[in-house]
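[Q] Does anyone have a clean C-alpha cell version of this?
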Amino acid sequence: MPELPEVETVKRSLEKLITGLTIINVDVLMPKIIKSHTAQDFKKLLMGSEIKKLGRRGKYLLVYLSANKVLVIHLRMTGRLVLLKDNAELPKYTHVIFYLENDKRLIFADMRQFGRIDLLPEEELANMPGLKKLGPEPLEKKFNPEYLKKELKRRRTKIKALLLDQTFVAGLGNIYADEALHLAKVHPERPARDLTAEEIVNLYNAIVTVLRQGIKNRGTSFSDYVDGEGNTGSNQNMLKVYRREGKPCHCCGSIIKRKKVAGRSSCFCPQCQQL
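[A] Here you go.
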C-alpha cells in the first residue's frame, strides 16, 4: 500500500501538471470506486470544476476544486493516479478517467479495486470518516518527541502495532515503520510504554529520517506504485530491513528475520533490535 512518501510524491508530481486546469468530462468505468455518489452525479458535480491545488492528509490525496469541492482519493493497495502522455493507451485496470482541458487525461487505475474516490464540500472534509480520526502528520510540529513520550507511556500495545495505527500517527505503514524501528534500534514487539526517553527521541528522529528519505527518493516501488507521471521510485534500493528476510543486516551482518506482529509482517534485525 502506498504510504506517506508515495502519496506525497504523487501529489508533488501532479500539482505542477494539473493545477489550474478544468475538468471537461469524466468517465466512470467502475462505479464502486466512487464512494458517496452515483457515477452520473459524480460526473455532473465535477464537470466544469477547476483544479485549484493538491494536498495530502496521511495516505489520502486531496484535490481541491473550484466551488469549494474536494476530491478525496485513497490509493489503498494497488491504486494509481496518473496523467497520461499524449495519445497514450489507457492502462489496464483503468476505472475512472478525468478529461482535462488541453486534451489531458488523468486516470485512476487499480488492479485490486480497493481504492476509493470521494467528492465532498471542503467544509465537510474535517468530519469525513477516515480523515477525522487521523493522528498528527509525522513531518509537522504536532508530532514531536514530547507527543511521543506522552502517548507511549500510556500504551500497552507493541510499538510496531502502534506505529501502524493511523489515529496515533498518520501515514506510516509497514515499510516505513519497519525501517524506522530498525534505524532506532527498537524491536517491533517492544511494549510502547517500555521505551526509554533516549529510545523515544531516537524513534522520533528515525521516523522523520526514513519518511524524508522516502520522499527524496520519490517513493518505494516494488510492483504497483508509480508517481503521477507513471515513474517508479527508487527508495526500495535504500531499505535496510523491509523485504530483506534472510539477508545480512547492513549494520551488523546478522540475518534479517521476519515474523507477524499484531497480524502484520515485520522485518527486523535480531542483533540491532534486541527484545
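[Q] Thanks! Anything notable?
[A] The two ends are 28 Å apart (CA to CA).
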